[in-house]
Design brief:
Blueprint (H helix, E strand, L loop, with lengths): L1 H18 L23 E4 L1 H4 L5 H5 L2 H7 L3 E4 L33 H13 L3 E6 L3 E3 L30 E3 L5 H18 L3 E4 L7 H11 L6 E4 L12 E3 L1 H11 L5 H14 L5 E4 L4 H7 L2 H5 L3 H10 L3 E5 L26 H13 L13 E2 L7 E8 L2 E8 L5 E2 L7 E4 L5 E3 L4 E2 L4 E6 L1
Parallel strand pairs: 1-2, 1-10, 2-3, 3-6, 6-7, 7-8, 8-9, 9-10
Antiparallel strand pairs: 4-5, 11-12, 12-13, 13-18, 14-17, 15-16, 15-18
Helix pairs in contact: 6-7, 8-9, 12-13
């Protein structure tokens, strides 16, 4: 009996040992989050109203394969909500006069159409960020019926943002926490219901930083999102991954007009790099919806140098932006308050911008923010020529650009030797002049 008992006990121990679950092995795979997920990204601004004759989500979706071929990584879609009618400007009104935060403008299609667009963008390896107008609404937004949600004058009338001519929008009161809560709920709605991947936040600096911190804390529990602030101030990076390079853009315009030179632009860039934290991504552009409609096309502002300045925007530290129609050579100021369809034609600059995107994607030195190399500026002996190298992880890219409309003589460092991406030729210190708006970009030989 004792032997049987001992045998039973031994079998019992063996069976228990076999059924005890093994401890789970800890995964060594780390989830990559923003900003690293956007380290080599290029952003594209989508103006749904003007993109196609139909002006719909479904019509725009037909362009996704072309945009994938172009190399676009992030689609920033301008506001798609219903537009206010009270105090409306023009026939169709401003995209930024929001009548209802959680609906779509029926002129663009249905909510299901938008969800389908987001899905198709994801299938084409693009993320979608939605333009968000947090500072103001239309004057006929339902919130205007709620006490304390808006700024008012001495007579109690709801006012538009002080110091602006935005007479078609009502200025929100961020001292009202109920309004803040509803705004955050609306932001969460688009993430949970449509699976968007982030926001471009309009005039973000007009909205208190405390709100953006609250909103980010809430949104972070739903999804890893990419956040872009339409503002040029270092403090925004407490809640945003990317800010506008407005100062850099304005300097480029001034150099193109002959009001400043490349040397002063270099001084500005160096100061900007010091002002901003190392992990800040700055957005660079030669055009966007505001610049195109209000200040002129790239041809008006940069003339024959539009490609040279695009090369600068794509290769200096930061994420480059392409605006709707830029790759087609958009040569008109699109009406802001009316229907004004982009003329696509042969999309004649598709290959040019696709080439720039390929260069950026394939060269770690040109990656965004701290993931790329800090520009080291080269002396050329000419104040109208900008030249720099960027290096990262053994990859080094050299850029030389004549920012003027005249031939310029240059003196390059004796160590200069790289293969130009555009011509394939080897560029050395023997190069002594650049034709108007000529540029070279390449890797070390």
């Amino acid at each position: 009996m004792k032997t049987i008992t001992n045998l039973t006990l031994l079998l019992s121990v063996i069976l228990c040992a076999c059924t005890v679950p093994k401890p789970k092995e800890e995964s060594t795979k780390l989830e990559i989050s923003y900003p690293e997920k956007a380290k080599d990204a290029v952003i594209y601004e989508v103006n749904i109203r003007q993109y196609t004759p139909e002006g719909t989500f479904n019509a725009f979706a037909s362009h996704l394969p072309r945009l994938k071929d172009l190399g676009v990584d992030i689609l920033w879609i301008m506001p798609i909500q219903p537009i206010g009618e009270k105090n409306r400007k023009g026939g169709l009104g401003s995209y930024y006069s929001i009548q209802d935060y959680t609906s779509v403008n029926p002129a663009h299609g249905t909510m299901d159409d938008f969800k389908s667009l987001v899905r198709k963008a994801h299938e084409n390896d693009m993320i979608v960020i939605l333009d968000w107008v947090a500072n103001h609404t239309a004057f006929d937004h339902p919130w205007t019926e709620k006490e304390g949600y808006y700024m008012t004058d001495s007579l109690g009338n709801v006012t538009w943002p002080e110091g602006t001519d935005w007479t078609d929008v009502a200025d929100l009161n961020y001292d009202n926490m109920d309004m803040q809560d509803e705004m955050i709920a609306a932001l969460r709605y688009w993430v949970t219901e449509t699976d968007i991947d982030g926001y471009r936040c309009d005039v973000a600096g007009f909205v208190p930083m405390e709100f953006w911190k609250r909103a980010k804390d809430s949104l972070d529990t739903t999804k890893d999102l990419f956040m872009l602030a339409e503002w040029d101030e270092p403090k925004m990076h407490d809640s945003f991954h990317m800010t506008y390079g407005w100062g850099f853009h304005h300097y480029m315009n001034e150099v193109a007009k002959g009001e400043k030179n490349a040397d002063s632009l270099v001084s500005f860039i160096k100061k900007d790099l010091i002002r901003y934290p190392s992990d800040a991504i700055r957005m660079n552009f030669t055009t966007n919806h505001d610049e195109n409609s209000w200040n002129g096309t790239v041809f008006e502002r940069f003339g024959e140098g539009h490609k040279a300045y695009a090369v600068l925007a794509f290769t200096i530290q930061g994420m480059p932006l392409i605006y709707s129609g830029q790759e087609a050579g958009l040569d008109e100021r699109l009406a802001f308050f009316e229907k004004d369809t982009i003329e696509w034609g042969a999309v004649k600059y598709q290959d040019f911008y696709s080439g720039l995107i390929d260069i950026k994607h394939n060269n770690p030195a040109l990656h965004n923010g701290e993931f790329g190399g800090t520009p080291q500026f080269l002396e050329t002996g000419n104040p109208m020529v900008i030249a720099y190298t960027r290096a990262k992880g053994g990859n080094e890219v050299t850029v030389i650009i004549n920012l003027s409309d005249e031939k310029q003589e240059i003196i390059l460092p004796s160590s200069t030797s790289f293969s130009d991406f555009f011509s394939g030729q080897t560029i050395t210190s023997a190069v002594s002049e650049l034709s108007a708006y000529q540029y070279y970009v390449g890797t070390k030989k």
